[in-house]
Amino acid sequence: MATNNDNKMSREEAGRKGGKATSRNHDKDFYQEIGQKGGVATSANHDKDFYQEIGQKGGEATSENHDKDFYQEIGQKGGETTSENHGKDFYQEIGKKGGETTSENHNREFYEEIGEKGGKARSENND
């Protein structure tokens, strides 16, 4: 046990012991409920920039710890879950939104370039 100079338990050790005791006494629903409450409280105290910053940091930390296979696996799981929960209308709607956003953000040269790339790929696959 970690102690400080007065032979008292350190704050870190006390937190660890408290966390273990709490986990023995509570189930998944408890943690979901307090997580929900914490999320509401956090969102009341922070703006969009805060969430962008922590998202950026989290993404960087994740990318440092995981490889291509990890991202393929979570992408596969996410895609399967999405397809189980949404129908054809959902995909049409998000496709339309994506197309509109892309057209707002890109010019004619962009479409010429991707059209050329698509044509090359198609011709290579037909050879």
Summarize the topology.
Elements: H1 11-25, H2 28-45, H3 48-65, H4 68-85, H5 88-105, H6 108-126
What this model shows, in words?
The chain has a domain of 56 residues. With 127 residues, the protein is mainly α. The protein starts with 10 loop residues before the first helix and ends with a helix. It is built from six helices and no strands. It is elongated and about 75 Å long.
Give a nutshell description of this structure:
Residues 1-127 are annotated as: Disordered. This protein has helices at 11-25, 28-45, 48-65, 68-85, 88-105, 108-126.
Keywords:
elongated; 127 residues; mainly alpha
Q: Radius of gyration, rounded?
A: 24 Å
Q: In angstroms, what separates the terminal alpha carbons? A: 70 Å
Low-confidence stretches: none
Structural class: mainly alpha
Instruction: Tell me roughly what share of residues is in helical segments.
Output: over 70%
Question: What general form does the structure show?
Answer: elongated
**Average pLDDT:** 92
Main sheet specs: none
Write the H/E string, N to C: HHHHHH
Q: What share of the residues does DSSP label as strand, in percent?
A: under 5%
Total DSSP E strands: 0
Please give the count of helices: 6
